[in-house]
Design a protein that fits this description.
The chain has a single domain, classed as Aminopeptidase (3-Layer(aba) Sandwich). The chain is of the alpha+beta class and about 150 residues long. The model has no long low-confidence stretch (mean pLDDT about 95). The chain has 4 helices and 5 strands, in the order βααβββαβα. Strands 1-2-3-4-5 form a 5-stranded mixed β-sheet, sandwiched between helices.
Length: about 150
């Protein structure tokens, strides 16, 4: 299977949205997803998304955005990285992660940061094998503005 990692286009957004919904079910929080394809299109200038494509199908995605950390400086925040079960173990996730890391390096970033669910041992192992430091002392905080 030949996999191409590339920047998502508007034409990909419906497929990416389906994967976002699938990912939300996987991490047990589908009720938290409020994004629509229409919103993705309207906000496309802010929607940084890479897709993994094979045989004309989107088989994974990574969303990210620029960040700045007062302790380290420029960074990229990896918001989501998801590959459906049928395509895991084929380096699709690794290639998406490597592509985001590459964008960070090219942009002069000092690090890539993301979160992972404590129960998702497979993902934790995946990240640790790639050199990530998994810090289990901090918690996420969200303050919704709408």
């Amino acid at each position: 299977m030949e996999v191409n990692i590339r920047k998502a286009t508007v034409e990909d957004f419906a497929a990416v949205h389906r994967l976002i919904m699938e990912f939300a079910v996987f991490i047990r929080t589908p009720e938290k997803v409020t994004i629509t394809v229409e919103q993705m299109i309207a906000e496309r200038e802010s929607f940084n998304c890479l897709v993994a494509e094979a045989d004309g199908r989107i088989i994974g995605f990574a969303t990210f955005f620029p960040a700045y950390y007062s302790w380290t400086g420029k960074a990229i925040y990896l918001d989501d990285l998801y590959v459906p079960e049928a395509y895991r173990g084929r380096q699709v996730g690794a290639r998406l992660l490597e592509a985001v890391i590459g964008i960070g390096r090219e942009s002069g970033c000092k690090k890539v940061r993301w979160q992972v669910s404590r129960w998702n041992e497979r993902a934790i192992d995946f990240y640790r094998k790639r050199g990530a430091v998994v810090d289990d002392t901090e918690m996420n905080c969200d303050l919704f503005l709408e």
